[in-house]
């Protein structure tokens, strides 16, 4: 390689900043269309929550000393009438509490004799005051928050019909390599493409929108003309094009010349990380990006989590991905002056253990992994050490 690799942590920051500068403009969308997108503005409460005093129990709203004369019923959704001394209103959970109510008597702790209610109310209020959860104008969630069903529910509860969001970046995947087969068994010098089938799923989990028909496309013929043509076609529709293979400078590695032909500038070109250091992110005129992932499967996923995850975060206005920490249950070697992203699995004792079958070209270890333990340059990962973890967003329910 002709260029010195950039430090791994610096590369993460650089691609996030580039993505943030090219983030899509905000747009207001109906709540039902926002799941999986990102808040472009803080979510601010439009009202007190609750907006009015609401009963926490089924029972009777009372005023003054008892016994009390039953004067009617208040159900959820109704406006509460005035209440006066010696009066009781039957009240349902969630119903509006009349102004001036002194107590709410639980139905299970009351006695109703004809039109007369008696019992001993509990000393603490049995209702939610306006603003118990939030006051009008409170910031509930900051800009950059991923929109989940819970966020949608919160927005609806405080009065939103639409929210300002940034859409997921549209992604395409180009698979390079004449040596790849897309079906059947490997053999006769050819191997199965193991990245084309899996990368769209990873991209969805990272907050991108893989475009049908473009994720994946390939294998692309190993010529410069084919590479340039495929990239041009993909960039017409996608905000981010991920490629696999061709990130070095071998006789059939055409990615760098193709990027030069398209007028790209490198945000990151090679990263001091093992495995997977010949990775890159380039920005095209107009604010679109190409992420070059190595052809070896595990190296490609290292590049995905190192560069594509923070790039997508920047493009959607999210923060730099947060790194958890884990305690190592066994030693993990360092890689000299390179950051080592080592596959680990968190076992029942809560410790993270390195996995076998974790060479660059292997997927067996990756399929059982919880993520990559980060061993910084010049260090070793001793058993008992607490180290950062780049988590893999792959488990839904029980682990395999």
UniProtKB/TrEMBL annotation:
Function: Catalyzes the insertion of molybdate into adenylated molybdopterin with the concomitant release of AMP.
InterPro entries found in the cross-reference section: MoaB/Mog-like_dom_sf, MoaB/Mog_dom, MoeA-like, MoeA_C_domain_IV, MoeA_C_domain_IV_sf, MoeA_linker/N, MoeA_linker/N_sf
EC class (word): transferase
Classification of source organism: Bacteria, Bacillati, Actinomycetota, Actinomycetes, Micromonosporales
Organism: Luedemannella flava
Protein name, per record: Molybdopterin molybdenumtransferase
Pathway: Cofactor biosynthesis; molybdopterin biosynthesis
Family of this protein: Belongs to the MoeA family.
Ranges where the MoaB/Mog domain occurs: 172-314
């Amino acid at each position: 390689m002709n260029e010195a690799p950039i430090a791994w942590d610096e590369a993460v920051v650089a691609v996030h900043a580039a993505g943030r500068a090219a983030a899509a403009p905000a747009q207001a969308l109906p709540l039902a269309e926002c799941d999986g997108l990102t808040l472009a503005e803080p979510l601010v409460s439009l009202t007190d929550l609750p907006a009015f005093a609401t009963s926490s129990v089924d029972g009777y709203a009372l005023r003054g000393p008892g016994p009390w004369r039953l004067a009617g019923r208040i159900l959820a959704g109704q406006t509460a009438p005035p209440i006066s001394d010696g009066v009781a209103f039957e009240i349902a959970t969630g119903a509006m509490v009349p102004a001036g109510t002194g107590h709410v008597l639980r139905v299970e702790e009351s006695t109703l004799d004809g039109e007369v209610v008696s019992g001993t109310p509990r000393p603490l209020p049995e209702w939610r005051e306006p603003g118990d959860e939030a006051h009008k104008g409170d910031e509930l969630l900051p800009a950059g928050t991923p929109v989940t069903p819970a966020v949608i529910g919160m927005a609806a509860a405080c009065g939103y019909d639409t929210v300002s969001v940034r859409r997921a970046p549209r992604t395409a995947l180009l698979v390079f390599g004449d040596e790849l087969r897309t079906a059947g068994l490997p053999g006769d010098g050819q191997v199965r493409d193991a990245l084309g089938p899996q990368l769209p799923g990873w991209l969805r989990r990272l907050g991108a929108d893989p475009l049908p028909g473009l994720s994946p496309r390939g294998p692309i013929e190993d010529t410069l003309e084919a590479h340039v043509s495929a990239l041009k076609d993909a960039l017409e529709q996608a905000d981010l094009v991920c490629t696999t293979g061709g990130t070095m400078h071998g006789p059939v590695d055409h990615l760098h010349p193709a990027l030069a032909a398209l007028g790209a500038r490198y945000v990151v070109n090679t990263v001091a990380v093992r495995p997977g250091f010949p990775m890159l992110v380039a920005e095209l005129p107009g604010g679109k990006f190409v992420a070059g992932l190595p052809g070896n499967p595990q190296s490609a996923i290292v590049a995905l989590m190192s560069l594509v995850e923070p790039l997508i975060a920047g493009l959607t206005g999210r923060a730099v991905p947060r790194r958890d920490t884990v305690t190592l249950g066994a030693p993990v070697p360092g890689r000299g002056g390179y950051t080592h992203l080592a596959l680990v699995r968190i076992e029942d004792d809560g410790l993270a253990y390195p996995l076998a079958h974790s060479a660059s070209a292997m997927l067996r270890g990756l399929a059982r992994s919880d993520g990559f333990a980060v061993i910084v340059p010049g260090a070793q990962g001793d058993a008992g050490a607490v180290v950062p973890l780049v988590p893999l967003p792959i488990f839904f329910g029980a682990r395999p």
